[in-house]
Records
---
Amino acid sequence: MVQDDQAEQVKISLLALQKSLQNKLVDADPKLHCKQDQWKRNEGGGGKTLAFKKGKFIEKGGINFSDVSGKKLPKTATQNRPELEGASFRGMGVSVVFHPDNPYIPTTHANVRYFEAKKDGGPLSWWFGGGFDLTPYYPFKEDVIEWHQHARDACNPFGNDLYKKLKDWCDEYFHLPHRNETRGVGGIFFDDFCEGGFDQSFSFIKKVGETFQDAYFSIFEKRKSISFSTKEKEFQKYRRGRYAEFNLVYDRGTHFGLQSKGRTESILMSMPPEVVWTYGWEPGQGSPEENLYKNYLQPRDWLEIE
């Protein structure tokens, strides 16, 4: 059974991660406008939202912390644990989304979270979840390989087969069935994670947060100064539509937030700032846009093509 103070250990770590990410982002784009909100939830808990917009490089972004509790765990959180349906719960996490202005900088998402649930005086159940993924518009193969190298290096100390397992899970999760394509080039994704006990699982979560920062800002710095045209910006807006489709239709985090009556402004912070849907659009033959469709929107073993 997890001791009461272990949830507080996670909370301290998540707040430190939020602050570290904020510092990294502001250092990378000092012209960002930031709005900070502390909020409370009627049923229990609250959070801290950091919303960013109109920077030199980041058009919109957010780094959100939430710690919510309630008497009935939402169905989204019991998808893999039906025995906990109706249990009281506490869930906390940090969720990150960056939507760059420059189409040559990928959009990215990361999340680390912790849940506790208890039903009818029974034992306390706990688990972690999270991951990070990358959504490029004009991809560079070396960036995608570097991204997955970081992911593999984060996983390897916790199991030689863990990277492949979580990489495959990410490819399956961030897939749009109605488009028959992935949202981007993946990364790692996991839920119901409690391998090796609390201490080891907690260590892995902390490693995931640290690795995301290093991996993303390395790519960010390499691509932030590339010039772009209106044509490339319009393609970025078109592809952002896929991001919106996934988040609204399939994303379990969005669904959990809404089902648990969380703060809507914070939940929908992940949505892109400007999106277009163009009927019947197709990439030109041999174009950079076709390259994205042909070579990057289906699962691949990126570390086998180094």
---
Amino acid sequence: TAFPIRSQQVWRSMIDYKYPSEAVGSDAFEGVLDRYTNSHTTSGNTAVLLQNGDDAYPVMLNLIASAKCRISLETYIIENDETTNTFFSALREAAARGVEVRVLVDAAGFKRGTIAQLNELSNHGIQARIFNPLFMSWTIFRFNNRDHRKILVADGAHAVLGGINVSDDQTGDGKTGWRDTSILVSGPAALDAERVFAQTWEQGGRGF
């Protein structure tokens, strides 16, 4: 076959996939979700809807400012603009007070000049990595293997998940700028988000 192994696996999973027939909310349905997402259902969590940058960015910056142990930030688009400068300043301040800070960005998702900024983060004690650098993408399949996750986890207790990147374009209320949504999750589920971050960090990130 002409398909690489990874593409064969994706194609086979699409063909063999069967929609679960279990009732939504049942224990059986939760078991199906756990199997497909390679995670486990937890209790004791709270979730708050964050609509657009006006809601999400203050929450995210507050999590960075209040973190005591560690911060994990993973995003696709990260611009060379004022919003990025604000986030990077907050991350530098966190590292200065002894917080472990890790930043993972996708190679195709940032603009010219950001690499220098990531190097500058490293100089301040922040661990910064790029997912799947373009110069290492030897095939079209590898080149298009992008990291579109947007995850911020603070102290393994709070996580912001969803579609909001780090960009001036996403500031506003949805009428101005891009329209996007995230969720603030507090509780054991935040550790699942951190586990997903750690997997990508180890498997796809390249340091400086």
---
Amino acid sequence: EKCHPKYNRNRLVTKNVDINSFLASIIYLIEKDYQVIRVGKGSLIKADIKNNCYFDITNDERRTDSLEMYLISRCQFFLGVNSGLAYLATFLFKKPCFVTNHLPYGTFHSESKLFQVNFKKLIDINTNEVLPLSEIYKRKLFFDERAETLKTNMATFQDQQEVEIKSSLIEFIKRIENNFTKDNEEIALEKEFLKNIFNYINRDPIYRHCHGKTKCSFGKNYLLNNPYLFQ
């Protein structure tokens, strides 16, 4: 509201994530001798962390677009959500990027090995159960993350949990250190998941042409712990 008062923020309801869901990941990175810098133009919530290796410039009067560009160009990797800065990091500066809490399911960036992608869950309002991909497609939510569309189709969303993000982050760092290699179990899981998700993506006359060869990753533990992705 402060930065873009005329912008239709309906889509942002599902894009937003509480910064404190990254708290365990931030602490883990600091313990591994990383410095963590939170970037972005404006924020509503501060992370509940006080450490000399954590910086939040989102509401700092010295924050500029140029400063953010420079910081991203110098980072070792980018951890974030489905937003412009995450893709700037990879497409412009070739930085490894872990995109958490992605919605919608049908439009993730799959074209680079530098990406690791995890999704938010969609929940049935009446049963409180996680919707499998087949039901997400049936309810016409595969390519639409607007809050009003979710509500119309009796669904809501659930952010990734703090422990889940940290677990995937650890895998992501190991992947970077091992030159983006995958073991046979992860390859098999990923193949099964991609077959399922593209079964629905390829039914759309527009989005079926948006994906080429899939080079991104999802993480072995993430795929093992989310069976709804295969249903």
